[in-house]
Amino acid sequence: MTVLLSHRMLLAGWARRATPTAAQWIHHNPEKMTLLEMLGTTNLRKSTPKDYRILREIFNSFERYSGVGNDIQLTLPERAANELIMCEKKREYEKGIMDPSKFAPGHHIFQVLTKVKKSPLFQILRRMPKGAALKAHDTSMCSSRVVIEITYRDNLWVCTTQNGCRVEEFRFAKDKPKDVSFENGEWQPMEKLRELRGEENLRKYLQMRFSMYPLASFTTNAHAWRHMMGIFGLLDGLLQYAPVWGDYYYNALKEFYADGVQYLEVRSVLPQLYSLDGSRMPKRETVQIYKDTLERFKKEHPGFIDSKLIYAPIRHVQPELVGEYIKECTELNKEFPSFVVGFDLVGQEDVGHPLSNFAAELLKLPDHIHFYFHAGQTNWYGSHVDQNLLDAIVLGTKRIGHGYTITKHPVLMRLAKYLNIALEVCPVSNQVLQLGSDYRSHPAATLIAENVPMVIASGSPGFWRAAPLSHDFYMAFLGIAPMNADLKFLKRTAKNSIKYSSLKDEAKAEAMEKWKKQWDKWVENIVRQRKKDSETEKK
Amino acid sequence: MTVLLSHRMLLAGWARRATPTAAQWIHHNPEKMTLLEMLGTTNLRKSTPKDYRILREIFNSFERYSGVGNDIQLTLPERAANELIMCEKKREYEKGIMDPSKFAPGHHIFQVLTKVKKSPLFQILRRMPKGAALKAHDTSMCSSRVVIEITYRDNLWVCTTQNGCRVEEFRFAKDKPKDVSFENGEWQPMEKLRELRGEENLRKYLQMRFSMYPLASFTTNAHAWRHMMGIFGLLDGLLQYAPVWGDYYYNALKEFYADGVQYLEVRSVLPQLYSLDGSRMPKRETVQIYKDTLERFKKEHPGFIDSKLIYAPIRHVQPELVGEYIKECTELNKEFPSFVVGFDLVGQEDVGHPLSNFAAELLKLPDHIHFYFHAGQTNWYGSHVDQNLLDAIVLGTKRIGHGYTITKHPVLMRLAKYLNIALEVCPVSNQVLQLGSDYRSHPAATLIAENVPMVIASGSPGFWRAAPLSHDFYMAFLGIAPMNADLKFLKRTAKNSIKYSSLKDEAKAEAMEKWKKQWDKWVENIVRQRKKDSETEKK
């Protein structure tokens, strides 16, 4: 008790000076006195109201200094911008506390998409330089607008069933395809179908088919996955046509860049693209098209940093085939050493093989090619899918795609922190694929509080008609992070995306500079706009 | 690297002997080598498949030995019972992985209540001696069957609107009440209404009005709360009638005891009960009725341990009134020292005052009367409600009601563990009050993994037509805990409920014995039933 009393007096002394300083001291000198030692073995019920207030303030500050962004010092202009951002955030937050039905992150994105787009906070975040988007899938990155434009190209055939009512497959070809994979399926030129169903009608229909809409509520996440795999399947014939592949990627780069993303890592299954005569090209051609398109894009957009490729074939295969993939990845990396930089396996984990099945094959990948494994994208706890998290870490992954279940595995969470493995948190994807319904229950809140390395990513934004990355930032900032998470949180998250990218050290430094330039401009614009607004008000 | 290599060799040596032993050694000697030191600073990508398997097994075991129940050693009969229990658990779990729509904890309880009752696993859990139920509210503990029976008593009047279609209020009185609180409200004898609407019809209607059914989906948790407060209000006139109050409590004890609960802590707002002439009695009478009823019940049920009272008035008041409550609690404890043992504040936190507002008053409570605060029953992160968690802890609470948001506050989670504060986890309540939809996303999974003190509790089971405690155990065991959580988890959870009760040391030891007797009988019954079943199969 005497020990505690002296602690108490010490704390009281600190509190008089400035509690945040005290908390910072504790934070930076954890070896000197732990949070728990501070409490000692006393009976808290003997506290005076003053004791209580001091302890409370100290723990509060301690918590404030433990989360993501605590290491960031804002510049003067950033502080001014922060005030405006927090004013908009608090407006939405407090409206939500008054009437939770008005809080966007409490709803399914499909129900609030338009509303969110009008939010002043979203408008600010949309323009924010976000650094890198580290998780995007090859054929779900672009908006449906881009995909629908592709359906206007020459030589496109469409296979329909139900007398033209249901579109089953697309194919580019000189002549009408002869093979039909669907019962009662019929091929016809796309122009003909458009004429038949009416342009506007068909556009609306395709917009629906190219996204998860309108199904905000699936019975289970398995059901949502099946639906999503159906979209991927429908797009295959459209996007795997060699002349289209590069254009789709170009448009993705364009859309991400317009959304404040300067660097993009794409996970691709690397399909063998086809030509008008139906012949398939080798995989290296797919990579070559990526590479050429990227060079063109970079030349035309000097503010853009770069893009890299993670070879990510489907996981629902036998170990021998994974062995083949590993060989392919090694070859491709030899040919495109600065572009094909990583390996992953994709597809619904719940129904796939666990990573451990493939361990012997995976360990054959040369260690300069990194693993970026999807893992723990599930809500089962203790199933083999859950084990993927452990396997990803023990296999030496550099990042983890989703890791949704990691908060149920504190040991692994500590390992991720220690080994500096970043989690790619994809809020909107998790909701659409039915892992959670309310953003306020997203487990990443714990990652933020524990300061576990994390980045905000999207995955397949085109399928949910969301912005490439802005909706994920909005939901994370307003719905997942604590109310007091501010510009420090946003800055740390943006910087993390470059820090945890596969860029090499020197390139990383350059990337950080390119990002910083845009960041400072963005901050300046907010401050300038604010001045303008308050001057207008005065008049 | 050399350091790591020697670690590696050490680990390999362990693994050859028996990995669980190695993990146990690490677990019990954390000061000798930490989880993280084991990894060293090596490149995991240089692992051989054998290295990988060893590390994987060690971390796996480490995790297994960290969760709730890891300290329990099962006896031989318990091991036999465990096999049967895990067989039933796995059956449900694996069916769920095959088709998630068949997994009960993935649904709203209202949709699977009947299905769950038929589950063999539920049947086992229903009979399990659960120890104590540490969270139950005074007028929502009993099934609606009990409440409906009360409506058959003499002298009951009912106030209806919409021409008898909507029941608004009940009152026991000799003559027709004169005051009407509802527009167009009319009082009539209950018999008359029953005759008018038909007995069966009215029974069904009341069953609906006395529960949260059929609304499995409210727009927000504020909406769910308003609905629930409406039920409490409707029940007031029925249950606050002095002769009814004791009977309701008696029935609650009976129903909880039949559900495997031997000890009950009730949170009561302690209303002033009324007599047939409308006069109100002092609060001490309410407690006296509780006390007398309890004595009667204990005499008639020697296997029952005890019941205690936590005075828990509504939190939506000014600090001065809380000061009054504290005085009342002190007085009542003086008169009923072994029965009125604690203090709490109830009602929706989101719309109430934060605990900190009342701190000065609360700290006046003599410290032998414990705090059992509700706190963090919210999904807002960083709001004042969230702060209640911190305040509850710093004010010296013995347990925390819900603490749903604690995993977003690792600092507080560590404090709860250090100070041995148990969280009262109420899975079904959290779902019905819209904090989460799928049990697999319940934050208590993290508490289980981190071995933070916790008990499983219910709250207002009558309002969701659930068993007093069995549905919460079922959802926690199957839906929240990891697949491999077994009888050790159940035993630790049952024992915790007595450990974290307000019983004094000696009484606690006696309680543990009384529970143990029933526990051993239950285990024996499972094993006997199993033998019988396998003999029948052989024939």
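Chain B touches chain A through 79 residues (CB under 8 Å).
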